[in-house]
Amino acid sequence: MLRRWVLYVLLLFVFGILVACGDDSETSGDAAGEGTTEEGQEETDGEQNRYAIVFKNTGNPYGEKEMEGFENAINELGAEAILRAPDQPTVEGQIQIIEELIAQQVDAIAIVGNDYDGLQPVLTKAMNQDIKVLSLDSAVNGDSRMVHINQADPEAIGRTQIQAVAEIIDNEGQFAVLSATSQASNQNLWIEWMQTELEEGDYGDMELVEVAYGDDLRDKSVSETEALLQSYPDLKAIVSPTTVGIAAASKVITDKGLQGEVVVTGLGLPSEMAEYINNGVSPWMYLWNPLDVGYLAGYAADALVEGEISGEVGDTFEAGDLGSYEVTESEDGTEVLLGEPFRFDEDNIDEWKEIY
Amino acid sequence: MKDNILQSLNLEKIAKFRELGLLGFIILLAIIIQLLNPAFLTFGNLRDLLTNTAILSILALGMMLVLITRGIDLSIGATLALSGMITALTVSAYGNLHPLLAILLGIMVGIICGVILGLLVSKIGILPIIASLGLMNVFRGLTFWVGGGEWVSAYQMPPSFKSIATSSFLGINTLVLIAVVIFLLFYYFVNNTITGRQIYAVGSNPDSARVSGINQTKILILVYTIMGGLSGLAGVLWVSKFASAQGDTATGYELTVIAACILGGVSIAGGVGKVTGVLLGAILLGVLSNGLPLINVSPFWQMGIEGMIILIAVLFNTNVKMLVEKNNLLRREI
Fold first, then answer.
1. Distance separating the N- and C-terminal Cα atoms of chain B
2. pTM reported for the whole predicted model
3. Pairing of the two strands A263-266 and A235-240
4. Of A59, A215, A220, which is closest to B149 when you measure between CB atoms?
5. CA angle B295–B300–B303, rounded 5-degree value
6. Chain A CB contacts of B300 below 8 Å
7. Where are the beta strands (DSSP E) in chain B?
8. ipTM for the complex shown
9. I want to staple A189 with a disulfide (CB 3.0 to 4.6 A). Which of A7, A25, A154, A288 is the partner?
10. Per-residue pLDDT at A24
11. Which CATH architecture has domain A154-287?
12. What is the CATH number of domain B43-321?
């Protein structure tokens, strides 16, 4: 008797979890896409184009802004935006969503890839069914996309950070880099460009002592920063091209009371860095505007669908408020560059910290 | 002659030897790191090491109780994140909230999470690994939902809240102080109170524990509640230390905590585990995460080395256990 009762409760629990999971994915799609209401609209005028964006995972404030920018562009164009993201930043989750989008016969898919090569089969399948595929922010390989929207030129990002740190520490002294994981392709590319800038420019008195990896984890980034400070007592600056790393490094410097002795710069979220820009640990840092990345991707998707561009080098298109853009060659396929990274300092941080 | 040696090699002595071995290993590791980078054994670095290990040791003590009852709690990382997120949102909305109240709020959130898990395990009889796996996702989802997918950043938190982790009392960092107090409380609790001994009884032999009149349901709910409360506390300390609350705070941290317990000689099969051992286990992991970056080990090797050390500890544990069992069998023959 008791055993049967336990079984019922168990079944109820499992069912509950299933419902909760189902609910979850629906709400995440919903919150992101307002899919249901707009699908209703679509039935009334079947001509409306549908553009989908697939982000890495849900619950990422940066991703929310990127999808919001995409939606803004699509709304300006009078089409329908579908915003989707898996619960976890996995390839499998994205493949499932893309399969669904193919079944819905959307007109274009903009993807922020969780893996460089892993999405190729499903994205090729989409392109074979005449769905326009582009990637933004985190690229997929050249064969699985028609064009990539690059948030900023890796060369400009790498070089700008070295120029910034040189300016802050007066071209003299030791500095270290605190990156995300050692396999993060975009971070590694930026660091390569940093090293190129160091070799080519006039930075004879500056020395890059170490590249440390904090894995985008708070505790690990803190340990790595502390190790850098212990190992190099004369360290003048830490350059961290990643959100968690730059905030963790700034926190350590703040707690140790090293303001002014060791400076931090790099790439970070304005909301995370507001405290440390205002207290002087980081005189300034950079990031692109995710709203603009999404916005540009929205217009590029439309240009692909309308046939204005085909993803070939030299194609040009208008991107609403952002102006005119040209497709250029990248290492693997073609891309559109958003522009120089945006500088956040004491003067503008207070208006940006509320935004993202 | 042989019997005598084996008999004198009783369980208690081996447990003691095991902790000495662990302590020796930590000292050996410290010497190696010191030789490779003299900055290791400096006052500043040791202070960093202890501060960074405090949260891990608090959680490991709670996990020890759960493991002793033959259970496991995989939801603590998510509980930590949920408590941290709720506390961070509260202090960002009510900036003049007293830090002590913030800590209490975090502990309450954790206790609620712990009680739910305790009820699922003890009253309904779901396997701890399944129940906590399910709740892990529930709590993680709640964290995202409560935070609305956004992070709570340093500028939104009042200085009084951030100073929980940075302040010090009598020259000792508050985090370390809290960990020491909890360690002393636990030491007294598991060794000198009836309830503390009952936890071991439930873990080492549930049937005889029931026969001798121990209320197993009560004990199970108690250990999961303590675990939850400590996770809640750790959540507040975590967010205060790093001055940032994210939805994915401490993802996977439960495995580090379990690793610290296993290193400290707690048996997954239940009934075995000592407070001092767990503390040494946590310190060993702390030394690794502090020391490996200092000696410039490639990031590819860091994880590998940590894993290898855990494996060696477990192998050692198994061998010692086999020896003890053989010893017991021999005694039975006499």
1. 14
2. 0.79
3. parallel
4. A59
5. 80
6. 182
7. 168-169, 172-173
8. 0.87
9. A154
10. 42
11. 3-Layer(aba) Sandwich (3.40)
12. 1.10.3470
